[in-house]
Amino acid sequence: MITNTIGGAMKSERHQAILNLLKQRHTVTVNGIAQGLGVSSMTVRRDLADLAAEGLITRVHGGAQLPHSAHGTTLSRVHTHDEKRHQNVQQKREAAKLAARYVKPGDSIFMGGGSTLELMCEYLPTRGIRVITNNAPLFSLLADNTEVDLYLIGGTYRRQTRVFTMPSSHNGFFGLTASKAFVSTTGIFGNEVFGSYMDSAMVLADALDRADERYIVTDGEKVGRRDFYAFTTLDRIDAVFINPDTAPDQLEALRSWTTVVTE
């Protein structure tokens, strides 16, 4: 974390502080940098313009991110569920609202792991749906609603991400099927959709294979990023729900493979 002691630092020191922050978070906002460095938003915008001119960062709406190489950016480490709950919350909420509109009474849906899908619970129909999930926090969010049929699947509990995983087979769903599958992702690069753990990602792959309609729910930070295991491809997905302030070039990259819903 950067502190206000850098507020009076030389431009080069501010630039380095911004780059260090980007290495930790991948995407930063103008307001966040200004608060952290103790400088004005105008100073931050000038610094970002300088860094972008040198090809060290890419400007996005309201901030900046690391540039996407030909191989995409990669996660430096796997974030815990608690960490993810506090990252890009507004962007995730916007994507979650969009996805929830596609759920109607009478639907049977699969919902995978991730804080974005947990936010989606706030906007689902309150009765007349069937939900299959391997997401423990999501299960808890819906557990008290007697008007929702709820099924928790899986075997081994992965505490870091709060999901249940299953053996590498198509038997873990015990015959359960959902007409619509909603999954999140830790990265999208080119046509590939990624997860951090093979066993968790294979649950998502199985759910997508069983569904009639397949959806990705994510925020713009994940676009251009690669992770450990590619569990599906965008050309097999019916639509991606994503926050509307995602950078235009990122939206265009997604639209070359599938439908993108931003409103």
Ordered list of secondary-structure elements with their pairings:
Blueprint: H1 11-25, E1 27-29, H2 30-37, H3 41-53, E2 58-60, E3 63-65, E4 73-74, H4 81-85, H5 89-100, E5 108-111, H6 115-120, E6 129-133, H7 136-142, E7 148-152, E8 156-158, E9 163-165, E10 180-183, E11 187-189, E12 192-195, H8 198-210, E13 213-218, E14 225-226, E15 229-233, E16 239-242, H9 248-255, E17 259-261
Parallel strand pairs: 4-14, 5-6, 5-10, 6-7, 10-13, 13-16, 16-17
Antiparallel strand pairs: 1-3, 2-3, 8-9, 11-12, 12-15
Helix pairs in contact: 2-3
Structural overview:
One of its GO terms (molecular function) is DNA binding. Repressor of the lactose catabolism operon. Galactose-6-phosphate is the inducer. This is Lactose phosphotransferase system repressor. Residues 11-66 form the HTH deoR-type domain. InterPro entries: Carb_Metab_HTH_regulators, DeoR-like_C, DeoR_HTH, NagB/RpiA_transferase-like, Tscrpt_reg_HTH_DeoR_CS, WH-like_DNA-bd_sf, WH_DNA-bd_sf. This protein has 263 residues and is α/β, with parallel strands linked by helices. It folds into two domains: 4-67, Winged helix-like DNA-binding domain superfamily/Winged helix DNA-binding domain (Arc Repressor Mutant, subunit A); 81-261, Rossmann fold. The protein contains nine helices and 17 strands. It has helices spanning 11-25, 30-37, 41-53, 81-85, 89-100, 115-120, 136-142, 198-210, 248-255, and strands at residues 27-29, 58-60, 63-65, 73-74, 108-111, 129-133, 148-152, 156-158, 163-165, 180-183, 187-189, 192-195, 213-218, 225-226, 229-233, 239-242, 259-261. A seven-stranded parallel beta sheet has the order 7-6-5-10-13-16-17, with helices on both faces. It has a three-stranded antiparallel beta sheet with strand order 1-3-2. The chain has a three-stranded antiparallel beta sheet with strand order 11-12-15, with helices on one face. Strand 6 (129-133), helix 7 (136-142) and strand 7 (148-152) form a beta-alpha-beta unit. Helix 2 packs across helix 3 (41-53). The longest helix is centred in the first third of the chain and has 15 residues, at 11-25.
